[in-house]
Amino acid sequence: MSATLLTITGLTAGYGGTPALFGVDLSVPMGGALALVGRNGMGKTTTLRALMGLLPPSGGTLTFDGVALRGLKPHRIARLGLGLVPEGRQIFPTLTVEENLVATATPGRSGLPPWTLERVYGLFPRLAERRRNYGNRLSGGEQQMLAIGRALMTNPRLLILDEATEGLAPLIRAEIWAVLSVLKGEGLSLIVVDKHVSALAGVCDQVAVMEKGRVVHSGPAADFAGDAELVGRFLGV
Ligand SMILES: Nc1ncnc2c1ncn2[C@@H]1O[C@H](COP(=O)(O)OP(=O)(O)OP(=O)(O)O)[C@@H](O)[C@H]1O
C-alpha cells in the first residue's frame, strides 16, 4: 500500500449555522487521483473550500502529509502544497496570461520537478500563443487552462479541480483530460470534481460519491463508471 497524502475524517461545516457537511471521510494516497462526484448541491465545493481553509470546519480532522490543516489560514494551506482550480476559474481579468501565471507562483518544494512558464506553455501551447492577452480576452477553455497553469505554478503536491471541464467544448474537454492524465503520470496527486464519469475514470483511481453532505459510496472509479445502475442511482436526474 502506498502512503496516504490526505486524510479527511468526520468533516463537518456549514453556512451561517446551517450545516452542509455531516461527517465527510475522504483520503488520497501519494500519487493517487480521487474523483469527487454527486448531484448539484451535495457538498463537493463545500468540502473543497473547507479543505483549503476558505470555510472554517466545525468538526473533523484534515491531515495533509502528517500536518493538521484545521485552523490554518488559506495561504498556509496553499503553501503546504494544495493547489485549487476553483469553480468559475477566478482568472485576474486585467492581467495578461503570463502575469496571471507568475502572480501566485511559489518555489517548488514538492519533490516533483519545479514548474516554470516554459513547462506550463509546453503543457498548454495555446497559453503560449495567448501569453500577452488579458484574462478577460480568453475563451472559457483558455481560462481553464490558465487556471490549471496558475495552480501548477504554486508547485502543488495535490492539485484540486472543482468542475474541471464544466461548460467547455468537447475538444477542449479532451485536452484538459489528457493534461490531467499527463500530470497524474508524472506523480502529481489529484482530486477532480466533474460530471463526466467515464472521463473521470480515465484519470482517477478512486471515486467518492457525495449525497447530502456525506460520502455515500467510494471505490474504484472504473468500477463505478462501468456500473450504469450505480451511476443512475447517485447521479441520475
Ligand atoms: N455560500 C453559501 N451560502 C449558503 N449555503 C450554501 C453556500 N454555498 C453552498 N451552500 C449550500 O451548501 C450545500 C452544498 O453545496 P455545494 O456548493 O458544496 O454543493 P456541490 O456538490 O458543490 O454542488 P454544485 O455542483 O452545485 O457546485 C447546498 O445545500 C448549498 O445550497
TrEMBL record:
Any one GO molecular function term: ATP binding
Name of this protein: ABC transporter ATP-binding protein
Domain of life: Bacteria
Gene3D superfamilies: P-loop containing nucleotide triphosphate hydrolases (3.40.50.300)
Residue ranges of every copy of the ABC transporter domain listed in the record: 6-237
Alphabetized SUPFAM superfamilies for the sequence: P-loop containing nucleoside triphosphate hydrolases (SSF52540)
Key words, A-Z: Amino-acid transport, ATP-binding, Nucleotide-binding, Transport
InterPro entries in UniProt: AAA+_ATPase, ABC_transporter-like_ATP-bd, ABC_transporter-like_CS, BCAA_Transport_ATP-bd_LivF, P-loop_NTPase
